Amino acid sequence: METVRQAFEEHVMHTYARFPVVFERGEGCYLEDSEGRRYLDFVAGIATCALGHAHPVLGAAIAEQARTLIHVSNLYYTRQQGELARWLTDNSVADQVFFCNSGAEANEGAIKLARKYGRTVLGIAEPQIISTHLSFHGRTLATVTATGQPKYQKHFHPLVPGFVHVPYNDFDALRAQVTDATCAVLIEPIQGEGGVMPGDVDFFRKLRRFCSEQRILLILDEVQTGMGRTGKLWGYEHLGIEPDIFTLAKALGGGVPIGALCAKAEFSLFEPGDHASTFGGNPLACAAGLAVCQTLEAEALVENARVRGEQLAAGLKRIAERFGSLVRLSRGRGLMQGLVLVAPRAAEVVRLAMDEGLLLVSAGPEVVRLVPPLIVSAIEIDEALAILEGVLARLPVTVTA
Ligand SMILES: *Cc1c(COP(=O)(O)O)cnc(C)c1O
């Protein structure tokens, strides 16, 4: 532990305040640290390890692909990329996919695609994109500009021009910011990092209709909500709408880095030379993606996310009622749930839960987020709820300001 920590202290850039634990292996919904201590993992690599840890199908697919062909670049065809693109388009409203390596990169691609649409289809010289307050779209310059949280932007001005922010779930406020230069709206079906805030169905229906009327692209950031997390394969299915474009990453590779920009045919405007990625969609990452997709189907994991999500939501609701002085409410969809505290004490709850063997992650200062692997069992949900309840019961009532 100490030598690992020292290496980080001296040689890894200090971009994270890490918890004092070194993880060495995992199995299913459990992780084991360097001291042999087990933790129930309701973080899942931040909504990424959909199949949990060391899933045999994913492990075998990666090992087999690694022994055969890892990478050749996008100068050539590879079977795995074609098959993953076919699975994603067969199972969504999209017709074509561009593969990359992360959520930020997928959104970066969506921003470029929206600008090309604005310039070439709508004839806008300087196209503008609308995104929302408390959104999260990534850490590259363009995506951190789209992200509606000044704390992520503060040292990095000048930001990228061409972005406007409006409150989430507020159609009139959004409409008021639309101009002749607006080419797209970029928005999450459920805001994740911003506090697990579900999109309002009525808002999204109005937005969809309005975007179609105005020929504005509706781009959904499904980086966290995609791949079954919410109890449906895509977050947009809860909203009764179809996006023109959506982005994926987190769970797509089950922990192997891969992102995807998915578009309907009429908005799939990139031509050779417009956009690229050296690693994007390489056989190793796509073999992992295919193993995830096949396992979602074979093990009915989207349905599991729905049923276990209902169990988790019901348990959190009970906890919110029992601890009314600490907890304001619970919210979320499927296995993307948040417990909204009365005070900014999410970090405290996360730390205490970790001491009790349960991994949680905050989503802003007041929200404790629960995003377990989609393979989670009823027993594991009950175990997590019991630990969380115990932590809240022992939480000191007052905070010193
Ligand atoms: C995590 C996340 C991103 C950024 O993904 P990275 O892989 O960290 O670049 C973008 N959008 C949403 C909604 C996310 O949750």
Which structural traits does this protein have?
single chain, 401 residues, alpha/beta, Aspartate Aminotransferase, domain 1, Aspartate Aminotransferase, domain 2, seven-stranded mixed β-sheet, four-stranded mixed β-sheet, 17 strands, 37% helix, 18% strand, binds pyridoxal-5'-phosphate
Helix-residue proportion: 25-40%
Shape: globular
What is the CATH top level name of the largest domain?
Alpha Beta
**What is the CATH superfamily classification of the largest domain?**
Type I PLP-dependent aspartate aminotransferase-like (Major domain)
Structural class: alpha/beta
How is the secondary structure organized here?
Layout: H1 2-11, E1 23-27, E2 30-33, E3 38-41, H2 44-47, H3 56-68, H4 79-90, E4 96-100, H5 103-121, E5 128-132, H6 141-146, E6 163-166, H7 171-177, E7 182-187, E8 190-191, E9 197-198, H8 201-214, E10 217-221, E11 245-248, E12 259-263, H9 283-298, H10 301-322, E13 327-333, E14 336-341, H11 346-355, E15 358-359, E16 361-362, E17 367-370, H12 378-394
Parallel strand pairs: 3-15, 5-6, 5-7, 7-10, 10-11
Antiparallel strand pairs: 1-2, 2-3, 4-12, 8-9, 11-12, 13-14, 14-17, 16-17
Helix pairs in contact: 3-9, 4-9, 10-12
The structure holds pyridoxal-5'-phosphate.
Describe this structure in words.
- The chain is an alpha/beta fold and 401 residues long.
- The chain has two domains: 2-54 and 300-394, Aspartate Aminotransferase, domain 1 (Alpha-Beta Complex); 57-298, Type I PLP-dependent aspartate aminotransferase-like (Major domain) (Aspartate Aminotransferase, domain 2).
- The protein contains twelve helices and 17 strands.
- It has helices at residues 2-11, 44-47, 56-68, 79-90, 103-121, 141-146, 171-177, 201-214, 283-298, 301-322, 346-355, 378-394; strands at 23-27, 30-33, 38-41, 96-100, 128-132, 163-166, 182-187, 190-191, 197-198, 217-221, 245-248, 259-263, 327-333, 336-341, 358-359, 361-362, 367-370.
- The chain has a seven-stranded mixed sheet with strand order 4-12-11-10-7-5-6, with helices on both faces. The chain has a four-stranded mixed sheet with strand order 1-2-3-15. A four-stranded antiparallel sheet has the order 13-14-17-16, covered by helices on one side.
- The longest helix has 22 residues, at 301-322.
- It is globular.
- The chain starts with a helix and ends in a 7-residue tail after the last helix.
- The model has no long low-confidence stretch (mean pLDDT 97).
- It binds pyridoxal-5'-phosphate (PLP).
